[in-house]
Amino acid sequence: MTDADELRTRTRALLAAHPPAAVDRAAFLEARFDAGLAWVHYPEGLGGLGAPRSLQAVVDAELEAAGAPDNDPRRIGIGLGMAAPTVLGFGTEEQKRRFLRPLWTGEEVWCQLFSEPGAGSDLAALGTRAVRDGESGDWVVNGQKVWTSSAHTARWAILIARTDPDLPKHRGITYFVCDMTDPGVEVRPLRQITGEAEFNEVFLTDVRIPDAHRLGEVGDGWKVTQTTLMNERVSIGGMRIPREGGMIGPVAAAWRDRPDLRTHDLHQRLLKLWVDAEVARLTGERLRQQLVAGQPGPEGSGMKLGFARLNQEISGLEVELLGEEGLLYDDWTMRRPELVDFTGRDAGYRYLRSKGNSIEGGTSEVLLNIVAERVLGLPAEPRTDKDVAWKDLAR
User: Fold this and answer.
1) Which residue, 91, 217, 337, 338, is most buried by CB atoms nearer than 10 A?
2) Active-site residue numbers?
3) Is the residue at 214 inside a domain?
């Protein structure tokens, strides 16, 4: 069993063989993955050592103290937080070895082709079709996806499509890995309230996906999807941040640096939100520690709920605190950013962008139902379409 001392020894050996000041970032990240120090709880040969997940903190502390480069979750968060655990859980050995290394190093960006114009909160109602070609064995996919972050920079996508319309909506879905460079994949920008287009809509026209890029069994895609969604909510709501990290940092800094802006009412609200942010940070840490025992559960939905509420309340307070300055916005130019940067922008951007937090990664309304039913054990809402064939549903 790998212990903390062995991990420290391995990490220091990596640093000695690949001094961060002497090698470029990509080379260091590749060497770290190959040494099993990317995510230590993954199997050997796949970026890990089969060690307890809790020991990742030992590696991270050593690397941070040495000033070693790290990957950027803001740019490759979908790959790290959603695609990787799904590939690990349901992929073949060949798929794991093909996809995990360039995913972790950031060489290949991933996106998520789940939501559709008629299947957002009710994701299981999706209508994108995948039909098996009897001669080649490939799947031919046609449909439209929407709200796809990073589709304009992604090489790969996790995709769910309907393979049997005669079954109820939660069945007859299959999960695939889609090559975003293939013919028939068209990405169009969706301009947001911020002026940017970090989201996209994606049109799939006769896109051929080899059966070797299927994750899980045919028709078992909803089960695979649950692994993705649960990990997504933990990665959003349980991000590792320092004290006063995230949205509360700029507001607290403005309060300290600008005494002319202070009022008693705003002071009381800031204190409450500061405490809420610290509670959320510590709860996120506890949630990550619970993951040591296995896959994330529905508790991650509660964390993601809190993340959205907190960001929107904090950004609203920041705009009030800054007054007229809070209404300024740095740049309305149509851009297609590679990442979302909350703290490196002005208050106006944070206020506008945070409005999406209660929609992306599962709407707050849907997550409230999940928490009520799966965490608190309350009666489920009636679902009259649960056993109806998808083809017979009203749309």
Assistant:
1) 91
2) 232
3) no
